[in-house]
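haha ok so turns out i had the wrong file open the whole time. this is the CORRECT one, sorry everyone. sequence first:
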Amino acid sequence: MILPSKIPGGAELMNAEEVLKTAGIEEKMKVADFGCGAKGYFSLQAAKLVGKDGFVYAFDILKSVLQAVSNLSRLHGFKNIETRWADLEVYQSTKLAEESVDFVIITNLFFQTKKHDIILKEAHRILRKNGKIFLADWGKTASPLGPPVELRVKPEEVKNLALSLGFALEKEFAAGPYHFGLVLVKK
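then structure:
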């Protein structure tokens, strides 16, 4: 079992398993995790949820992060995760075929970049019709943790951009005490 991310004192930032289930991840899906991070929380939970007949591509720009996630996936016995280097601020950097995945995970990435349109265009390119994105990021309000408020994005801005790029909003929910969650569907 993979533990959710915790903050000092035991409070939970986001329960990866819970939010991915809420977002609609299912067995046998092919998933791309954009910006998987060194702990691979969402990649590992996705691998568990899609099962042995599903597959997860874990993308990051840092090779050290990819090695850490690869090590963790082996440690936990996952054979359905492949780490891949990509600069997600460059269109088509994932090198995945068009319409080749069912589900894209984008967590805590938008506060780190201004190239939201390129990231969403790449997700749109690789998603099958009716494929989904689970996008979660830090809310635009002050909190005891996380990046400076001025770097955070408003969910409304993300929704408007996604709608302009051919996505529909399926649902919006609190993905934890400090994060918003959006489920976007490729039309």
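The two ends are 34 Å apart (CA to CA).
again sry for the mixup
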